[in-house]
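Quick one - first record:
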Amino acid sequence: MSAPSVRQRRLGAELRTLREAKGLTQEEGAQAAGPGWDKTRLSRVERAQLGIKPDVVQLLLDKYGVSDPEKREALAALAQAGTRRGWWQTYKDIISPAYAELIALEADAKSLRSYQTLLVPGLLQTAAYARASIAAINMSSTPDQVNALVEVRQQRQAVLSRPEPLQVWAIIHEAALRPTVGARGVMRDQCQRLLDLMDLPHVSIQILPLGAPAHPGMAGPFTVLAFPESADLDVVHVEGLASALYVEDAADVVVYGSAFEHLRAHALPFAASADLTARIKQEHK
């Protein structure tokens, strides 16, 4: 059995929370789901071990007294997402399940808050910067594999230009803009890309200067993904060299949100961030 997706876990956890808030047992919830359902099957859904169809979710929400149309639509969409094929599945032989999950979450998210220490966030990278950084990090990848991963990274950026674009707030440590990545001019063009993105109304970029005081971001980079239906379903993505961690517990997600607010306070204001980025761009000649 494959591992449950983050979206399955989010849906299962929310359905369990709604049922318990109504004071219903799993057996009572299963009765509302219709023929063929029992408490064991509902338990498997709540533990993200089994998928569920959107129409059955609607029946459960009727039983649980959920009338908010936006919440109902969002939870049904989570159920539908379990069977949806995304463009990224074309690259299933080259990207890990955890990476595919991140792309799917970005596609579903309303907003994203990212803190990066030594890399420009993937959604903000130029193709040349992406190629150089991917080749450096994925040490055993062939040139063809690197090219495919660059294609994936570029296609991910479509969330910034969709009809209702992803709201992105990125805090980038100045140290990420200092190294020479790739051939001459790559960092200069990458800095210009950041300057161009700063003009978009749905993209906010701040630079955390080298001289900033001690801060919670010293623990490492992270990304908080927020979704339309409920703050309780927000997810934190923490990426490592060989794997990724998804933080889903609501209390832990709040800790990362608080950390991001501290980083915002330590980072340069928007105008000063743009000025510093422009100066660093001139240094990469």
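second record:
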Amino acid sequence: MISDFSERRLKMVDGQIRTTDVTSAPLLDAFLTIPRERFIGSADPAIAYIDEDIRVATGPEGPRYLMEPSPLARLIQLADVQPSDTVLDVGCGTGYSSAILSRLARSVVAVEGDSGLAAQASAALAQTGCTNVDVVTGPLSQGHSAAAPYNVILINGSVEEVPQALFDQLAEEGRLVAVEGNGNAGVARLFLKTTGVVTGRRAFNAAIKPLPGFERARVFEF
């Protein structure tokens, strides 16, 4: 029986997030404020604050997960979200990452390819008062060009490569954060757009679950 999720949130922040060099006060406050137990779908609320990925759906393209708190916090901190920013959350799942971002940015567009997850995200975000998030449904690799450009783009899972369509939706001086590579080979990267040119740098190693739809095109070789 869960009696006090606020205590579990505090333990998550102190034991899982602060210990991995996340120091942004607004970001830590967002993790302390947002009720993670509202965003785990049909999973047992008792596991909401474990330091593991939580499966929230199993679709035809593969399973989907709520990302472990620590790498999510590190990715968002890497993006340096500002109060005036418009953010695109790619693969928002049940909406937890969008809820965190909503506390940091002016507005968030949360794109989700699974209509069931999108519905869950919309409901959970409404229940938690995240009124500056717009949930849209569509192919994740295409982003949401109708509301572009974005100051920040977060890709919510590991990818083989970042598609050009997402780079095209970055604003000037915009930041895109993503984990490239699978499993223990995953590397978090920060991409910056300056004078129309996107450059990237390695930030830290990160083993997170893959996001379907971002596989590199296979080239036939003789």
